[in-house]
Amino acid sequence: MAVYTQLSAETLAELIAQYDVGELVSAKGIAEGVSNSNWLIETSGKDGAGARFILTMYEKRIDLSDLPFFLDLLDHLAAQGCPVPRTIHDRAGASFRWLDGKAVALIEFLPGVSVDHPTEGQAYSVGAVLAEMHLAAEGFAASRANTLGPETSAQVLAECGEAALAEIAPALPATIAQAREVAEAWPTDLPRSIIHSDLFPDNVLMRGDEVSALIDFYFACTDAMAYDLAVTHAAWSFSSDGHGYRAEIGRALVQGYESVRKLGKDERAALPVLAQGAALRFVSSRAQDWIETPADALVTRKDPMAFVRRLDFYRREGGDLFTA
Ligand SMILES: Nc1ncnc2c1ncn2[C@@H]1O[C@H](COP(=O)(O)OP(=O)(O)O)[C@@H](O)[C@H]1O
Ligand SMILES: N[C@@H](CCOP(=O)(O)O)C(=O)O
């Protein structure tokens, strides 16, 4: 589940009244997601014909000083024609408000479903939309450093410590040294833009083969575009437990990406290490969450081993995987 905070009907109605979107009709907590609380909001709409929105309350892992960056980015990308939800501004023009000491934003609802087992056609479209987003973001004036880069992964795993990692799974402690190796080999001069950096299937809504929305930009930052492709490759091209590599999906993603933006030789050569860094990014955050989240918490903990298996795969096969 991901509704960490209970809001009464009165509180929600008062909040919605601050926006020019009609009156609150219903609010349903959304189970998906792990980071923020989300509600599907229905209102009477400005014209009485009804309207839907997503209300997000920012709970953790978000530095609130970054919120204007994330919300302005949505507006910028939507204005450039990317399938990204706009931020609804309140009557005073603010993109977010405060409720019970927490920041909340009202976001445009976009239709579509997240797929569990993507087809090649879907993977191709996701690759293409990712590249379009990278190009559209080049005109966005603000920037934000990646706070979850390879150095952070190495540091987080070291801080978790061998003993706590071994308690989760015996194979996990080895990732401390592997993350250090990857951080030392990390390329620093690849072409950059704003990247999504968490483009998992649950952050893409689809209608058939078409991408109807990219959502959850709360890890977006300025970094290498090829790294974003590597994250997306790691997130889409395996069975969810990380055991089975789906070669046709990996290929379709890269082909779709290159149908819009060709990778440079340097980017292609860097993909094996970028993919290892991508896997480690999720091994480290999942291991940290695993240790910090009580086993009986309402949130389902995500298995770090699903990304250790991807990491092993990229260490073994990465050299040949991304050759043109
Ligand atoms: N703009 C949107 N339009 C339609 N559904 C959305 C939108 N934003 C979020 N959702 C729904 O809410 C769920 C959780 O949102 P998400 O931003 O991924 O939460 P979290 O940051 O907690 O992972 C998504 O899986 C999707 O079902
Ligand atoms: N995609 C990450 C977790 C981030 O969660 P999200 O629900 O905010 O996308 C993972 O799978 O570890």
From TrEMBL:
Pathway: Amino-acid biosynthesis; L-threonine biosynthesis; L-threonine from L-aspartate: step 4/5. Residues 27-262 form the Aminoglycoside phosphotransferase domain. InterPro entries: Aminoglycoside_PTrfase (IPR002575), Homoserine_kinase_II (IPR005280), Kinase-like_dom_sf (IPR011009), Pseudomonas-type_ThrB (IPR050249). Gene3D superfamilies: 3.90.1200.10, Phosphorylase Kinase, domain 1 (3.30.200.20). The keyword Transcription regulation does not apply. Its EC number is 2.7.1.39. The keyword Amino-acid biosynthesis applies. It comes from the Bacteria. One of its GO terms (molecular function) is homoserine kinase activity. It catalyses: L-homoserine + ATP = O-phospho-L-homoserine + ADP + H(+). It is an enzyme of class 2 (transferase). Coiled coil: none annotated. Keywords: Amino-acid biosynthesis, ATP-binding, Kinase, Nucleotide-binding, Threonine biosynthesis, Transferase. Belongs to the pseudomonas-type ThrB family. NCBIfam families: PRK05231.1, thrB_alt. This is Homoserine kinase. The gene is thrB.
